[in-house]
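Table 4 source record.
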Amino acid sequence: MIEETDDLFDKLHEECGVMAIYNHPEASKLAYLGLYALQHRGQESAGIASADGIQIYRHKAMGQVSDIFTAEVLAKLPGRLAIGHTRYSTSGDSALLNAQPISVECNKGRIALAHNGNLVNAHEIRAKFEAQGSIFQTTSDTEVVVHLIAQSREQTLEDAVADALRRIEGAFSLVMTTPDRIFAARDARGFRPLCMGRIPASEGRPETVVFASETCAFDLIGANYERDVKPGEMIVVGPEGIHSRYYAPALEQSSCIFEHVYFSRPDSLVFGRSVQASRDEMGRQLARESHVDADLVIPVPDSGVTAAMGYAAESGIPFQFGLIRNHYVGRTFIEPEQRVRDFGVKLKLNPVRALIEGKRVILIDDSIVRGTTSKKIVRLVREAGAKEVHMRISCPPTISPCFYGVDTPSKKQLIAANMTVDQIRDYVGADTLAYLSLEGLKKAAGEGDKTSYCTACYTGKYPTQLVDVHLEDLAAVEVKSE
């Protein structure tokens, strides 16, 4: 049986977003703005490291970007280079010591590093270092990369970074600064997004090179998207210009398809494709595969909105915002003395009774993870007077945990790993329930055009060896052969 949870929204969470700026007089301010645009990728902590050619300055704290980086804080982050990070913990505890960037001075010089993703052999590498006497300051797998760089036998920093990246396995999009250079790299399978752009030169100011997890960060700072950092590629930007090299041969590309389903903002280009276009097509394909007669198509905001619009357009059934989200809900410690049923969900969502009452409703969401929130939302819609509730999900059933930077529950907590679709329908209380097929999802996300995707969370077939996986999560794990 699925374990009950009090989470307000039992979504999957992505680890973080990264940002890097090279050669701008207000580099730390641009990094701040970029992180602000990437805040959806992590709300737990944030940090910026800046460099002025001689020193590296850093500030990081728990909380959200706008609360951490005041004008006074940014004034203490001088220089024309900066990297930034906003975090949701998937590896390491939720604590300030694990906030990034991580900054060190080692035999290769001063460096500050931040990464998005999860390394599947980090614990194995860490255990070897600790056995040799190395001391770790954090529980984050990012620090493993720093130790690999510091202990590499390569003579130059660039070669040491390349050597370190060859020795780690899993998902990473990484940005790093030295006092005068920015590094950006992606893992050889391209699990996590990382794109490159430029701010044109103007009024005597030279061109600025920027990197970010998503292109929505470029829009806010006036940068033009140029291209993605390619799988297995490391780009170095310094006084001598831009230099690119492949630290490892690219493997079969396994970009995370859930970026298009849920994580990324719809106004971003991710893996070279519009997220908005992918989600719209997911909704359209869902309507083709599982049409049902109804009066209204209603999204679960915000992640179900674009797919619901696509479903409505394809089916001809009117789209309405029948659930209104309260965007100003933080943590609350005040609950009614007599506990209100579904109080947590009601804080965030409220149904529009005038639209819903007496109607046959198609409720569109991007995923069902544990199922507890979906159950509460269906109950809200029924209590608002819906005559029928038909739930449609714009991805396949999530049956396996992710080990590449997505904070997925274990298999015993994933409702689709333990119940049939009919059983899930009964559990959430819908009249009908249908998921988008895997082939439909791949088609909607444009597989084959520019990328191929990792779909392990839907298939249980993993593209890498899983060295650090806990035994209880290893059940039914299959690793694809090369």
